[in-house]
Amino acid sequence: RTASLMSTLERVYGKQLLDLALHDYAERARFRHPEPRDLIEAVRGRLGDAAARNLERALFERASVDYLVRDVQSAPRDPHAGVFDESSGRRTVPRSEARPPAHYVGHAIVLRHGSLEFPVQLELCFEDAHCERRSWDGVGADYTLSVESASQLVSVTVDPEQRVLLDDDLTNNADSSRERGAPRAFERLFYFAQLLLGGGLP
């Protein structure tokens, strides 16, 4: 667990900063008996308060974390149809005239269980095969993301590069807006295969 914790700090906050923190720790602890607090303060000095807080909780409280994606949805944006008051008078716009070019609104909820609060990347993939990234600082029990796009949102993956090695369950890190069934089962199977091949190791 300690190795996974240090690897997680490296992956999330950066190897260079962690190396500097460990160097500071070694310098300050030279010729004396070091304590865990010395390591925490060295990490705080280079990686910041959030990283030090995660390190402290993981060391002293055996704290855990589990990120999961829930309720991925995507639908065409409602056209602005209805009755509108304008300077020239009242105008009725039927839905057939109001429909804009293909445009979708997507939503998803990302949850965090446990008291560790690592920042994570969220990967959003769309029907036209393009993907984009969002960032979440990991603070709070949940994060709701919304996106407007010319293509329909089909899946969301939290921590796609598997930087948080302390995540208790990697199998719930992705969800899809597509209908459940055989395609969904294949998607899960493919994701599990990626996990097995990657092994969650650096």
Gap between N and C termini? 14 Å
In DSSP terms (H or I, runs of 4 or more residues), the helix count works out at 6
Class from secondary-structure proportions: alpha+beta
The topology string of helices and strands comes to: HHHHEEEHEEEEEEH
Radius of gyration: 23 Å
Question: What is the mean pLDDT?
Answer: 86
| Low-pLDDT regions | 180-184
Strand order in the largest sheet: 6-5-8-9
Classify the beta-strand content into a percent band: 25-35%
> Fraction of residues in helices?
25-40%
The rough form would be described as: elongated
Overview of the structural elements:
With 202 residues, the chain is of the alpha+beta class. The protein is 35% helix and 30% strand. A hairpin with a 4-residue loop joins strand 5 and strand 6. The longest helix has 17 residues. About 2% of the residues have low confidence.
What's this entry about, in short?
The chain is α+β, with helices and mostly antiparallel strands and 202 residues long. The protein contains six helices and nine strands.
What tags apply to this protein structure?
4-stranded antiparallel β-sheet; 6 helices; alpha+beta; 3-stranded antiparallel β-sheet; 202 residues
List the helices and strands and how they pair.
Blueprint: H1 2-13, H2 15-28, H3 36-47, H4 49-60, E1 66-76, E2 82-86, E3 89-93, H5 95-98, E4 104-113, E5 120-126, E6 131-136, E7 142-149, E8 153-158, E9 174-176, H6 182-198
Antiparallel strand pairs: 1-4, 2-3, 4-7, 5-6, 5-8, 8-9
Helix pairs in contact: 1-2, 1-4, 2-3, 3-4
